[in-house]
Amino acid sequence: xxxxxATIQYEMDAQYQEKSMLTNxxxxxxxxxxxxxxxxxxxxxxxxxxxxxxxxEEDQDRNRM
Length: 65
Hints:
mainly alpha; 3 helices
């Protein structure tokens, strides 16, 4: 009976393993994973920098009038 219950428990255990491209990128290709994150971070910073700069120029134009 215990063997039967152990077999049932074994069959009920999850056999699913997630295959994520992002996880594989950091596990197998650490350089490209970190380089990609750095590129995303730099891109976001540049977008914010130029957006704030644009807002500052608009404020200066309004103050001149």
